[in-house]
Write a structure and sequence with these properties.
single chain; 9-stranded mixed β-sheet
Length: about 475
């Protein structure tokens, strides 16, 4: 097997593969024939720089065609791509280099200085140099599904980021979620907005779309709610994949309007609050399908296509995947999941560390991390439920719920809130939010402590670091 020959080379060369929009607004349409040729020639260049089967190639690139070509070039040779987010600082990149020992780094001209500051001593290929496509095309290596193809680092929610290796089977294995959750169809234009370097981007920026005969949109710019809506309309995007934070921000800040070309929308990376699902359904005309996966597992669960969306649920296990709940924690059988990481023990269940409940129809509902659940006077309270209630108030831009120690109840809910411009933090707003949560969900879940902040502590991928907020109270 080889993703580049099986999918890219095998596609009709005249079919649209990529629509690329730069930060400056420059737009390019790229056909599969060009993608195939450029990836093969870049593979030849990498081979000339010493890259061999099994070697690691680090990319320091944005969401550009050159990033896609580099990933494909690695997979063509049987090399291992390790995409990095552009938010890394020299110490971060140095740590990754030390852990994965790359043969080569491919970077854009704006980040060569970052690579130098990270003290990488090997060859650096500059993605903007047209000479990287001058080599003779390299043939696609015959590979096994367990030949390493990709390294993605975890976000470090509970500690230092860890490198997770996936095999070639991870790429082909995306076909399940691409069909049953992502929802791409032949001829669609799909847009996964996740920045290069993240697990979701590695599997959905172009892999999932191409497996289904669709094209992918790459937009190399920072998130802007109004620009996001403008691009959706202008490019007539059919399938959209964003984080809940992005859906939430657009709903509250950009002013949703009907998006007739948008047939399907999915969310991943964190739980999606029900009021945002409803807003997109009512105002944009599309129901957002939540989903769930981990860096280690790939996609496991998704809101199924066809039945009405259940706002707040992350859906059901994907076809053929065996997952179950044990003492409140979601477990998965690695043998049934073709996207699992190479270094995981496949003879025993994978413990996700996430607390989940199931309803009578088998839909799963996220309650929080196993170490995030708040136990107050015997009640088990998932932080997401509290956060969803807070986020449904117009004053709240962001919110995190954690446990605070209490002499009577053991723990109480503490909310840390970032407010929208125009709202004044203080006792009056705190009391208003408490009453709002009591009205929106079971009263025992309301935050008895509310703190206001300018921003929340987050990992580089944007996940809230609740452990930091808990540590402020315990000193740990």
């Amino acid at each position: 097997m080889n993703f580049t020959s099986d999918v890219v080379d095998a596609a009709d060369p005249s079919n649209l593969a990529l629509v690329a929009v730069s930060a400056a607004g420059e737009r390019r349409e790229i056909r599969f024939g060009e993608v195939s040729d450029r990836a093969a020639r870049l593979a030849g260049t990498l081979r000339g720089s010493g890259v061999r089967r099994g070697d690691v190639v680090v990319t320091v690139l944005g969401n550009t065609p050159e990033w896609a070509y580099t990933m494909l070039a690695c997979w063509r040779l049987g090399a291992v791509a390790q995409p990095c987010t552009l938010q890394l600082r020299p110490a971060d990149l140095r740590s990754r280099i030390e852990r994965v020992e790359p043969r080569t780094v491919v970077a854009d001209e704006h980040h060569v200085e970052l690579v130098g500051a990270a003290r990488f001593e090997g060859p650096v290929v500059i993605a903007s140099d047209p000479g990287i496509f001058a080599a003779e095309p390299a043939p696609a290596a015959p590979l096994d599904e367990r030949d390493p193809a990709l390294i993605v680092f975890t976000s470090g929610t509970a500690g230092e980021p860890k490198p997770i290796r996936h095999g070639q089977g991870y790429l082909a294995g995306q076909r399940v979620q691409a069909e049953h959750w992502y929802g791409a169809r032949h001829g669609d234009l799909c847009w996964c907005t996740a920045a290069s370097g993240w697990s979701l981007s590695a599997r959905n920026a172009f892999v999932a779309a191409w497996l289904r005969g669709a094209a992918a949109l790459l937009h190399d710019a920072r998130f802007d709610p109004d620009e996001r809506i403008e691009l959706l309309v202008r490019e007539r995007v059919n399938v959209l994949c964003m984080t809940p934070t992005e859906y939430r921000s657009i709903a509250k800040r950009a002013g949703l309007r009907p998006l007739p070309a948008l047939r399907h929308a999915v969310a991943a990376g964190e739980p999606l609050d029900p009021d945002v699902v409803q807003a997109w359904q009512d105002e944009a005309g599309v129901a957002v399908h939540d989903g769930y996966g981990q860096t280690e597992t790939g996609h496991l669960v998704g809101m199924p296509i066809g039945p009405p969306v259940r706002p707040g649920s992350m859906g059901r296990p994907l076809p053929g995947f065996r997952v179950w709940i044990e003492e409140g924690e979601l477990l998965a059988d690695p043998v049934t999941v073709p996207t699992f990481f190479l270094d995981g023990a496949r003879e025993r269940p994978w413990r996700t560390g996430d607390r989940v409940r199931a309803d009578e129809d088998g839909y799963l509902w996220f309650e929080g991390r196993t170490d995030d659940v708040i136990i107050s006077a015997g009640y088990r309270i998932g932080p997401f439920e509290v956060e969803s209630a807070l986020l449904s108030h117009p004053a709240v831009a962001e919110a995190a719920a954690v446990a605070a120690p209490d002499e009577i109840r053991g723990q109480v809910v503490r909310a840390v809130v970032v407010v929208h411009e125009g709202y004044a933090p203080g006792d009056a707003l705190a009391q208003e939010l408490q009453e709002h949560v009591k009205a929106a969900t079971a009263p025992y879940k309301y935050p008895r402590v509310i703190d206001f902040r300018d921003e929340l502590p987050k990992t580089p991928s944007g996940k809230i670091r609740r452990a930091v907020l808990r540590g402020e109270l315990t000193g740990v």
